[in-house]
Write a structure and sequence with these properties.
The structure is a single chain. By secondary structure, the chain is an alpha/beta fold. The protein has 2 domains: 11-139, 3-Layer(aba) Sandwich (Rossmann fold); 155-244, Udp-n-acetylmuramoylalanyl-d-glutamate--2,6- Diaminopimelate Ligase, Chain: A, domain 1 (3-Layer(aba) Sandwich). The protein has helices spanning 18-30, 64-70, 80-87, 121-132, 141-144, 165-176, 230-236, and strands at 11-15, 35-39, 53-56, 73-77, 99-103, 109-114, 135-136, 160-162, 181-185, 203-206, 219-223, 240-244. The strands form 2 sheets. It has a 7-stranded mixed beta sheet, sandwiched between helices. A 5-stranded mixed beta sheet has the order 8-12-11-9-10, covered by helices on one side. The longest helix has 13 residues, at 18-30.
Length: 251
């Protein structure tokens, strides 16, 4: 596996009603890699699917802990309010929680509820919406505003983030609020902006950190292989996020 290869996410489609099981079957037929979890009373609705089907007995709330442990993406064909109450006792952090999505009873909308960026629920919502002919309802500010997602920038290219979580939070706020941001790229693929819209006007691109007037920017996104001097972390305080692209092997 190369640094750009990522394990296939473990996806489960969950339904607790007969109608929901029918919708889950419809999506499962278009997502052969997804498993299915339904109430045993409605298992007939998903009979014959090639992927694993888990028919549970008893209270549905008792299934949530196991779903959180076994899967990376959980797509619920259950009401949003019920899902919020069911998952609340199991929440840890956005680095640990799976992506959680809700599909409404008409399969018209797909809502990422939890772990939209780091957990991949936003991307999964767009995929599921495409397959169902539905509308993804994204509420993450960087997605709605079509700007840089600081916490996952370059993830598809194998980049890793090097910064305290507080820096990521602070810099993300500067980005979505339209404050001037220095995007300094000294390494890695230049194809990191993957949206069809132009780069927002508050993002200013540079090829070297030395070219940046730090006093004129609210934050710095630095893509580099260089070590970061401790003095620079102190100088920029909570306004620096560093990205490490894969180091290309010599031919």
């Amino acid at each position: 596996m190369t640094c750009l290869d990522k394990p296939t996410p473990r996806v489960v489609l969950v339904a607790i009603t007969k109608h929901g099981a029918g919708l889950a079957r419809r999506l499962a037929e278009a997502m052969p890699g997804a498993e299915v979890c339904v109430s045993a009373r409605f298992a007939e609705a998903v009979a014959g699917l090639p992927q694993p089907v888990h028919a549970y007995e008893g209270a549905f709330k008792d299934q949530i802990g196991g779903l959180f442990q076994r899967y990376d993406q959980i797509v619920f064909f259950v009401s949003l309010g019920a899902v919020v109450r069911l998952i609340a006792p199991h929440l840890k952090t956005k680095d640990e929680d799976p992506g959680v999505l809700v599909v409404d009873d008409a399969a018209a909308f797909v809502i990422p509820v939890l772990s939209g960026h780091v957990g991949g629920a936003n991307a999964m919502a767009e995929q599921v919406a495409t397959l169902l002919g539905a509308v993804p309802v994204l509420t993450t500010a960087s997605d709605v505003g079509r700007t840089i997602p600081v916490d996952i920038l370059g993830r598809e290219l194998g980049w890793t983030v090097e910064a305290p979580k507080l820096n990521i939070t602070r810099v993300s706020a500067h980005v979505v609020n339209g404050n001037p941001i220095a995007m300094v790229q000294e390494a890695g693929s230049p194809h990191w902006w993957m949206r069809p819209t132009p780069l927002p006007a508050n993002i200013h691109c540079y090829q070297r950190l030395e070219d940046v007037d730090l006093a004129r920017h609210a934050a710095v996104l630095w893509v580099t292989h260089r070590p970061v001097p401790p003095a620079l972390w102190r100088q920029l305080h909570e306004a620096l996020v560093v990205y490490r692209p894969p180091v290309e092997a010599a031919p």
